[in-house]
Amino acid sequence: MAAGVDPIVFYLIIFVLAIFVGYHVVWSVTPALHTPLMSVTNAISGIILVGAMLAAGPVAFDWGGWVGVLAVALASVNVFGGFLVTQRMLEMFKRKEPGAKAAGKH
Amino acid sequence: MTANQVALWYLVASICFILALKGLSHPSTARRGNILGIAGMAIAVVVTLALVYSHTRNVGMILAGIAVGGIVGAIIARRVKMTQMPELVAAFHSLVGLAAVLIAISAIHDPAAFGLHVPIPSGNRLELFIGTFIGAITFSGSVIAFGKLSGKIRSAPVVFAGQHMLNLALAVAMIGFGIWFSCRPTSRSGCRTS
């Protein structure tokens, strides 16, 4: 990064750009896909697992490490459950696909 | 693994997530989108595991946490009925909010595990405050959403006298505590960005 740019400003830039990406990526979503999209977005929010992993692997493992392990487990429920549930929804969608394009909404 | 390598792998994971969301916008690409999401998550987790292993070697408890959480999540995802999907997503989402709060607590307890300076700079404390703030609202909001979607709580809005004033007071109090937490000069953590 450019020398002299405060990391906070750098993170703010990423944050603002990510808002634009999110907005444009989901803008044209088909109504029938609202629930699976919500589900996969929730699964991706499980990326907080990465932060939890840092908390759960400190040099000296004390109660802070246990708090981290709990966070890892909670985030993992979301990651595994979220992607599997999305997959189940999309399988249902696939079976209905011949008629789904005509219906287009729930 | 160097910090730059880790950051570049996180970039790859981020691109996978953007493509996953894009894929989920159209029926023909939806399944590929979900697989890209799984790939991005796998990359992020493996890289982080390698990072922690290279620093502390303490990855046993992380793997145990992932195993327990993963099994619970997989069982719930397989057993739930299709009609219960929206409330399930709300319930899952509350866990993310709770995890965010727990991570902030752990980070303040042991800043070094996150690569933070030991008197945590005020900029990082502001980030921790925002993370906790949003995480806690995500938790309580998702629990209420789960209750309403599953019919355990009445869907009608809860209204009572002085509600807006109470909400305003809570918001002011939270922001006030956040500023105090981020800027208070104490012997342990002075309000400097150095």
**Rg of chain A (CA only):** 19 Å
Report how far the terminal alpha carbons of chain B are from each other.
26 Å
Count the beta strands of chain B. Answer: 0
Instruction: Describe the largest sheet of chain B.
Output: none
Most extensive chain interface and residues per partner:
A-B, 74 and 71 residues
Which strand-content bin applies to the residues of chain A? Answer: under 5%
Query: Structural class of the secondary structure composition of chain A?
Result: mainly alpha
Q: Beta-strand percentage of chain B?
A: under 5%
Strand segment tally of chain A: 0
SSE diagram, text form:
The complex is a heterodimer of chains A (106) and B (194).
Chain A: H1 7-26, H2 34-45, H3 49-56, H4 63-103
Helix pairs in contact in A: 2-4, 3-4
Chain B: H1 3-23, H2 30-56, H3 60-79, H4 85-109, H5 122-149, H6 163-183
